[in-house]
Amino acid sequence: MERILVSACLMGRKVRYDGGAKTSGDALLAAWRHEGRLIPFCPEVEGGLPVPRPAAEIEGGAGGAAVLTGAARVLAADGSDVTPAFLAGAQAALAVARSFDIKIAILKQGSPSCGSLTIYDGTFRGRRMPGQGVTTALLESYGIAVFDEDHVAEAGARLRELTESAEPGELVKPAGVMDPGDR
Ligand code: SF4
Question: How many whole angstroms from 145 Cα to the centroid of ligand 1?
Fold first, then answer.
């Protein structure tokens, strides 16, 4: 079965910086959960950060790729440098994904770890800008397709493509060749 990595907070786990969850009510996610297809994971907790914890943003809104190369840090609202925990969490997410041969992830939008389309701009003023979180940038660099909680249907389409390409192709009957039952 193709497994899907999913942000633990979307699955109702209270792992967010504020001690809460962001439980998704998506029916497809619920069906996949029932199938045992989902692997819930929180990079920040697995990277060693506590719950609750100060909010964190990537300085300058530089994006996860810049953090991975050492060009930007992840700073907490109290000014502390939490970059090592974010890097450790991203590596842990990648390790789990590779252990299950995962090709699809559904991660919470806007997070400095899990964001795929937007992140906060580093000023702690609630302003979003285009960009990716650290875990998303690492997973995508390894070819894992990352979707957010508002694009679960698109993740489903990707899953269908993967499932269909893994099935043996149907034999195509050459033109003019009749099946025994056709006679
Ligand atoms: S790091 Fe990801 S999984 Fe963990 S609380 Fe933040 S958005 Fe959710």
Answer: 17
